[in-house]
Amino acid sequence: MEMNCEVIRDLLPLYADGACSPASAALVREHIGGCQDCAALLERLENQGCEAALQREACQVVERHRRKERRRTAAVLGCVLIVPVLVCLIVNLAADHRLDWFFIVLTALLVFASVTVVPLVCPRRQGLWTLTAFVGSLLLLLLTCCLYTGGRWFLVTAVCVIFGLSVPFLPCVAGSLPLGRFFGRNRGLLVLLWDTLCLAVMLAVIGLYNNASGDYYRTAFGIAVLCAAVVWAVFLLLRYLPANRLVRAGLAVALIGTFLAFADPLINNCFLRVSCPWFYFNLTQWSGQYIDGNIAAILLFASLAVGAVLTAAGILRARREK
Fold first, then answer.
1. Contact at 8 Å (CB) between 103 and 148?
2. Residue 18: pLDDT band by 50, 70, 90 thresholds?
3. What are the Cα distances from residue 309, in Å, to 152, 235, 304, 316?
4. Which residues make Cβ contacts (< 8 Å) with residue 100, sequence separation at least 6?
5. For residue 173, how many other CB atoms are within 10 A of its CB?
6. Quick check: 249 pLDDT over 60?
7. Range ranked top by mean pLDDT from 10-14, 171-175, 309-313
8. 279-305: per-residue pLDDT in tens?
9. DSSP element (H, E) containing 312
10. Which pLDDT score, from 0 to 100, does residue 65 have?
11. Disulfide-capable partner of 265 in 22, 53, 118, 276 (CB 3.0 to 4.6 Å)?
């Protein structure tokens, strides 16, 4: 009888869901007719199934109501935005008998709609679609202003805007995209590649816009390559160095501190062609030329000390783990 109850209890979930065969269902019905324990267990399973169904139905009702309210709010915002569009259209036609600054107002309202209406009408990935709509509408606004003023600055402004927004927001976008296995494990590498490319394009477009000479490109790209090399070195060290986190953090702190300490004389002597002492400090003198040198020296010594402590702690931890 005990073994029979165990077999029936294995069949009870299938019986409660109506997924067992007719022969098994008949066996279960016959058994629960004379076994109160199994009958009580079946009742609990059925109650749990009803509660789960009610919970799913409640969630669906709440979700439908939420979508309905979001659509209603988006419709209200759309109607509110139509009012200034119509007013500006009438005023522009009545005052100038042509449409010019009306398109500036229209694209400006599109920027506002991108951060208010778009999140309400997108059921999934609201952040990604909102950011895309915002960048697109902002570029459209800049293009409209450039055409209205007769300028030629749109390209340089657009590149700078894209680069400026890519640095803080692209990691979030890359984290939300369904990339493949290889690219999914190297999202940071893709983001840094894009940022580096945007930086190079931005410097080139700025040079073309100002009709810069060769000195500009040598100086700008030289400084950019130096700074980008440090950023790449820190990223590769933190992401791909086969060591524990303490060792990687210690090396990164030492590298960043050393670069910051020597960045000013390195850029002045190598790229700006301005004579500057490479390393000078006197901690007893805090006036004149010693201020920058003392700050650089303190930064260098502190970063090397912190980096050495973290690296030593990481090495000791790795030995203990082995």
1. yes
2. confident
3. 54, 21, 9, 11
4. 92, 148
5. 16
6. yes
7. 309-313
8. 777 777 777 777 888 888 899 999 999
9. helix 290-321
10. 67
11. 276
CA-based angle 190:192:196, to the nearest 5?
120
3-state secondary structure of 79: helix
Tokens at 31, concatenated: 């058994």
> Per the structure block, which two tokens stand in for 167?
């640095």
Q: Which of 77-81, 228-232, 246-250, 306-310 has the lowest mean pLDDT?
A: 77-81
Instruction: Name the CA radius of gyration of the chain, rounded.
Output: 33
Residues in Cβ contact with 189 at an 8 Å cutoff, skipping those fewer than 6 apart: 235, 239
- Residue 121: CB partners within 8 Å, gap ≥ 6? 70, 71, 74
- Contact 6/31 with Cβ under 8 angstroms? no
* Of 261, 286, 289, nearest in space to 275 by CA: 289
Residue type present at position 66: R
Tokens of 74: 């988006």
